[in-house]
């Protein structure tokens, strides 16, 4: 289920009051949301108090500002509860969310996930092996790994993080078989794994 309602945590006070008023008006008798939580009624009571506190806090009196911030926190808590109800009931449907008075997040084009097709493992001097993949356009980092056993659910991989698509492992045991792979990390934290390649070290 998508969560498409924007966060109001950093919204300016006046905009928060406007949004709250809009949500109250649109949520009342809305057939899409027939059973709103008690937060809706509580928001109706809390909003006028918040609006009054906004006016009093304009003089920058510290006590009035503190009271305003307390009232704002109450409004934010109630809005958050209502947003969760709306998101759950609408199942993330954009039109349904908008009918509640809440704003919808802007759907940005996400970057494609990195993809690794081929892993090359070159043997060098005794005890050395170099992993190499083609340049991955959307990768921001690479993790080069090896294991000393055939990969399975509980395999322990030795990892070396790098900004390069190649890495030279040293100190490996000669005449022993190793399994290698590379993980590419994308801009949004996506991971792409290369095929696993096995080599007997010289």
Describe it.
This protein is α+β, with helices and mostly antiparallel strands and 202 residues long. It has 2 domains: 13-99; 119-200, Immunoglobulins (Immunoglobulin-like), CATH 2.60.40. The protein is built from 4 helices and 8 strands. Strands 3, 4, 6, 7 and 8 form a 5-stranded antiparallel beta sheet that branches. α1 runs antiparallel to α2. The chain starts with 12 loop residues before the first helix and ends with a strand. The model has no long low-confidence stretch (mean pLDDT 87).
Brief description of this entry?
The protein is built from 4 helices and 8 strands. With 202 residues, it is α+β, with helices and mostly antiparallel strands.
Which overall shape is indicated by the principal axes computed on the Cα atoms?
A: elongated
How much of the sequence is in beta strands?
15-25%
What is the gyration radius calculated from CA atoms? 28 Å
Compute the separation of the termini in Å.
51 Å
Number of H/I helices:
4
* Count of individual beta strands: 8
Mean pLDDT: 87
State the order of secondary-structure elements, H for helix, E for strand.
HHHHEEEEEEEE
* Helix content bin: 25-40%
What structural category characterises the helix and strand content? alpha+beta
Domain module count: 2
Q: State the low-pLDDT regions, or none.
A: none
- Please give the largest β-sheet: 5 strands, antiparallel
Give short descriptive properties of this protein:
single chain; 202 residues; Immunoglobulin-like; 2 domains; 5-stranded antiparallel beta sheet; 3-stranded antiparallel beta sheet; 8 strands; elongated
């Amino acid at each position: 289920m998508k969560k498409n309602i924007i966060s109001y945590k950093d919204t300016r006070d006046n905009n928060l009051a406007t949004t709250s008023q809009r949500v109250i008006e649109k949520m009342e008798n809305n057939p899409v949301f027939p059973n709103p939580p008690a937060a809706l009624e509580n928001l109706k009571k809390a909003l006028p108090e918040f609006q009054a506190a906004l006016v009093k806090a304009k003089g920058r009196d510290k006590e009035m500002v503190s009271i305003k911030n307390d009232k704002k926190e109450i409004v934010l808590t109630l809005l958050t509860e209502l947003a969760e109800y709306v998101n759950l009931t609408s199942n993330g449907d954009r039109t349904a969310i908008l009918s509640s008075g809440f704003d919808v997040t802007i759907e940005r084009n996400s970057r494609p996930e990195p993809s690794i097709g081929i892993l090359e493992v070159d043997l060098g001097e005794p005890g050395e092996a170099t992993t190499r993949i083609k340049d991955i356009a959307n990768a921001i980092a690479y993790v080069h790994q090896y294991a000393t056993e055939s990969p399975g659910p509980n395999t322990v991989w030795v990892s070396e993080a790098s900004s390069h698509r190649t890495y030279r492992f040293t100190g490996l045991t000669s005449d022993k078989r190793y399994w290698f792979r590379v993980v590419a990390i994308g801009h949004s934290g996506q991971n792409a794994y290369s095929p696993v390649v096995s080599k007997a070290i010289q």
